[in-house]
Amino acid sequence: MMRLVRALAAAAVLVLLVAACGGGGTSDAAAGGSGNGTGELTVLAAASLTEAFTALGAAFEAEHPETSLTFSFAASSELVAQINEGVPADVFASADEANMAKLVD
Length: 105
Fold this sequence. Notes:
- The chain is of the alpha/beta class.
- Helices cover 49% and strands 16% of the residues.
């Protein structure tokens, strides 16, 4: 069951990464990216997702060589605290709904 959850989370992030890259003349900011125009995406993800996201990241970068990914893996609660303190992130993937809700609230 946990593998299914991780696979679904990884697939969701891949969709978010593709959307964040934009296309069709939209800016990074309009597509949800950082707006820096450099083709860089910062992904903050739960430590439990390290293996799945590292593999997805490599596949994504191979298909999108103009985009580089920077990953930061830690406990979801720690990542929420970092984001609330101003650490930039284009994608946040939590290991649980409670920490995602803290960030959304």
